[in-house]
Design a protein that fits this description.
The chain is α/β, with parallel strands linked by helices. It has a single domain, classed as LmbE-like (Rossmann fold, 3-Layer(aba) Sandwich), CATH 3.40.50. It is 37% helix and 21% strand. It contains seven helices and seven strands; from the N terminus they run E-H-E-H-E-H-H-E-H-E-E-H-H-E. A seven-stranded mixed beta sheet has the order 3-2-1-4-5-7-6, sandwiched between helices. Helix 2 links the parallel strand 2 and strand 3. Helix 2 runs antiparallel to helix 6. The protein is globular and about 40 Å long. Bound molecules: zinc ion (ZN). Keywords: Zinc.
């Protein structure tokens, strides 16, 4: 029997990681009455602009997506996109340790160490430190997959994403995930991009078919204390 999630902390480097990785699951859990807090470290998309001109503040989009998914508590930090390595692991650990102290989650969702993005790897490590056994209320840690970050890691020699946990989704949960992605505007690209609506739907169908259900999101379950 699987334990019940009551308080979930989702940590992400960039706004949209949480939606791409676990948006359908977040919509479902919110419907089930789970209290969800989202902590995003970067508030802009600065690395896309070489001059720093035209940098978009992502906070309104993150807020809109969070509302669609049923996330009730949101913290967006002001670290620069693709610069978390200059912030350092220790400070990132402290950010999440503070989140765990304040929100007291029993479960944490984080990016995977399989992701090509260094930001994602740093966030994944910090989440493991903040949620380590015996140091707080966290009883379960899962990693989600983010299309184009998780599927690019293997060719760069990173460990392969190995899901061992599937959350079946209703059509309505997948629709909420797509609606939240639309809130991010340009982040949603044209097919055949993995970040297109069809690409997101295709992954949900593939993960679902692995466990004989119509749609699912898959996770790496790192630790569960029953
Ligand atoms: Zn990201």
């Amino acid at each position: 029997m699987h334990r019940t999630i009551r308080r979930l902390l989702v940590v992400a480097a960039h706004g949209d990681d949480e939606t791409l990785g676990a948006g359908g699951t977040l919509a479902k859990l919110a419907d089930d009455g789970v209290r969800i807090s989202l902590c995003v470290l970067c508030d802009d998309d600065g690395s896309r602009s070489e001059t720093g001109q035209g940098v978009t503040n992502r906070v309104p989009a993150i807020e809109a997506a969070a509302k669609i998914l049923g996330i009730e508590r949101l913290a967006v930090h002001e670290y620069g996109d693709n610069r978390l390595d200059t912030v350092g692991q220790l400070e990132l650990n402290r950010v999440f340790e503070r989140e765990v102290r304040e929100f007291e989650p029993d479960t944490v969702f984080a990016p995977s160490l399989s992701d090509l993005s260094l930001d994602h790897q740093l966030v994944s490590r910090a989440a493991r430190v903040a949620g380590r056994a015996g140091r707080g209320p966290v009883r379960e840690i899962r990693c989600f997959e983010v299309r184009s970050a998780t599927d690019s890691g293997e060719a760069a020699g990173l460990p392969v994403f190995r899901p061992n946990c599937w959350q079946p989704l209703a059509e309505s949960h997948l629709e909420r995930k797509l609606e939240a992605l639309r809130a991010y505007g340009d982040e949603l690209q044209q097919w055949p991009s993995p970040r297109s609506e069809r690409g997101v739907r295709a992954l949900a169908e593939y993960r679902g078919s692995q466990v004989s259900t119509a749609y699912a999101e898959a996770f790496e379950l790192l630790r569960v204390v029953l």
